[in-house]
Write a structure and sequence with these properties.
The chain has about 280 residues and is mostly helical. The longest helix has about 60 residues.
Length: about 280
């Protein structure tokens, strides 16, 4: 930094910023200014610059850089009520309605699987009122529901007791093997086992209360354990897939901006990353 720049640094900051603005940068306003001044310096230098010229900031660099504070948004502290809602914020950003995410996160919807239980009325009750935004939020929820149903069906086959190759073995492991033929006769497999109710067992011919209670208790325990494992796995898989989709969308945005930049550079006469000299 030149002596003139160093001497005028504080004066340039005081003249062009307010105390409120400086407080929002939490002590890093000067760091931002010097970084932007370095950008201004790089834009100012031509291709013949060398040595100290490449690292020396001038007063003019600082004066030019300070103007960026009029356009730049200062860093904001995140609302504590929004902490932990990154998944939901990310999803809403993909749908172009990121400004609505706060309504959902503040209401406790911090994970993708939380959203699948929402109806149109629920969405409107959270504060989404514009018709177009309601429709888009409903579409987002419906897509997550479809994804969840798909994952759930795929997981059904994975969360079966590995030591139970069939329902007969499942019954035998629970000292209920005497009822295996009854289950076989009614074609009960793992796909429907968890759906059996107390009344279903009675219709199958289990009229004695004791055995019917014991079997139903084992079914409920097995089903609840399976659903808990499935829920954890589905939550993780949905998060991974949505993160992947988000990164792909962000990469596409970057690619589009690069293509636009290349086109702009070509029209301006910039070639292979080099700028024509000012001389």
């Amino acid at each position: 930094m030149t002596a003139d720049a160093e001497k005028n640094l504080n004066a340039i900051i005081d003249k062009n910023t307010t105390a409120d603005l400086r407080s929002k940068y939490n002590g890093r306003l000067t760091d931002n200014l010097l970084q932007w001044a370095a950008d201004c310096m790089n834009q100012r230098l031509d291709l013949t610059a060398s040595g100290e010229q490449l690292i020396t900031l001038t007063k003019d660099d600082l004066s030019e850089a300070i103007k960026k504070f009029q356009l730049a948004r200062p860093p904001q502290k995140k609302d504590p009520a929004l902490l932990g809602g990154e998944q939901v914020e990310q999803q809403f950003k993909m749908w172009g309605i990121q400004h609505l995410s706060a309504f959902f996160v503040r209401a406790g919807y911090r994970q993708l699987v939380d959203l699948i239980h929402l109806s149109k009325q629920d969405i409107m009750a959270l504060g989404v009122t514009k018709d177009a935004e309601v429709r888009r939020a409903v579409q987002l929820v419906e897509r997550l529901k479809q994804e969840h149903r798909k994952e759930s069906l795929e997981m059904d086959a994975l969360f079966v007791d590995p030591d139970s190759v069939d329902v007969k073995t499942w019954l035998e492991k629970r000292s209920l093997g005497e009822f295996a033929k009854l289950f076989e006769r009614h074609r009960v497999d793992f796909e429907v086992l968890g759906d059996l109710t107390y009344e279903d067992l009675k219709e199958m011919g289990l009229n004695e209360v004791g055995p019917r209670r014991r079997i139903h208790r084992q079914i409920v325990q097995w089903r609840d354990d399976r659903e808990a494992k499935k829920a954890d796995a589905i939550r993780s898989r949905m998060q991974v897939q949505e993160n992947k989709a988000y990164l792909e969308s962000q990469q596409q945005n970057v690619d589009d901006r690069l293509q636009h930049l290349k086109a702009s550079l070509g029209e301006s006469g910039y070639v292979t990353g080099l700028r024509p000299s000012s001389g």
